[in-house]
Amino acid sequence: MKLSEIKEILPTLENVEFQLENGAFVPEHFHVTEVGTVTKHFIDCGGTIRNESVVNFQLWNADDFEHRLKPGKLLHIIRLSEEKLGIEDGDIEVEYQNTTIGKYDLKFNGKHFVLKNKTTACLAQDACGIPAEKPKVNLSELSTHQTSCCTPNSGCC
Fold this sequence. Notes:
By secondary structure, this protein is an alpha/beta fold. 17% of the residues lie in helices and 31% in strands.
């Protein structure tokens, strides 16, 4: 989800709710403690230099169980970050501590925001030496009426 998308969604909501992919909800007394840009400058295993940048939201649970972040307040925080930090429209990455600090992509399911699990991947698979995945074939789908080009005494074997 891009920053521009969340800015369009927030005014339509009564509450801001985040749900993990496993169905569990982030406790409703969470805070958005940071909105910023995270830039990653790196080299992949194939030697290509890369730059990635995301808009980062950090969610945090405090002991103030009466706290509720309203959509207007989150929209205000976003607009303030755009004004003060020059944040541009970009993909949102959410940091949230469950067992450890996790990074999530953000989606909206029409009712609340969903923290989508992220995975790692090789960006230079051609340089990594990992063989391409072989196509899976069900033996039951193979034709049982295949004719062989080799027959006894044909000299092909």
